[in-house]
């Protein structure tokens, strides 16, 4: 992109004043909901899992779900897991997000600060671990290391939604919908890149409804004009006339960064 001087505006870095990501949100909502749906499937014994029903039945303990990250992905994962009757715990570094989760779910979802001690304790207890960590435009931090797998129950499942950003689990690598899982140290890993592709009709309708206004503005004003007029689009600009203007991407790849205002 830099060599060819492409003007590139990324869906996932278009950002509103409040920090929300309007073009990424629908895909994050879908991926969060799918993470539990897929995780529940791969907990079934024929798919290599422990043979656990997340919702349990009367007299039998419910499955335990651990969600790393309380953003859009994590919140939607918690919604589905709770709806299935699972025992759900969500971890995050932000007190405000944990307070939000506690409020909207009326205390039905347990909340914990994301610390090394809490991560180690929860991976040992959980049947399904969902990686829902996002740093917009940057590589996801690796919060679950390979040594954590030794603490987990055999044939439990990890779904790393963050794999599109490098993954928040040390042992994940991108897989496909045709071959979605693999096993490391007795733990089933699901790490499909572009999870929403599995529900393509829903994804297309959700994505186009949120991106169309931005696309029309870019078409009407041109890329540079749209960036000057709309701060959200300017924050989504990644490369312009051979310059890398997204600080997170520059940091992730160790490349030189130029402020967008200097080149627009």
Quick overview:
The chain is of the alpha/beta class. It is built from ten helices and ten strands. The protein is elongated.
Give the helices and strands as they follow along the chain.
EHEHEHEHEHEEEHHHEEHH
Total separate domains: 2
CATH topology of the largest domain: Rossmann fold
The radius of gyration is 20 Å
CATH secondary-structure class of the largest domain: Alpha Beta
Share of residues in strands? 5-15%
- Multimerization state: single chain
Provide mean pLDDT, rounded: 95
| Biggest β-sheet description | 7 strands, mixed
Backbone structural class: alpha/beta
Major sheet strand order: 4-3-2-5-6-8-7
Give me the CATH architecture of the largest domain, please.
3-Layer(aba) Sandwich
Shape: elongated
Uncertain spans, ≥5 residues at pLDDT below 50? none
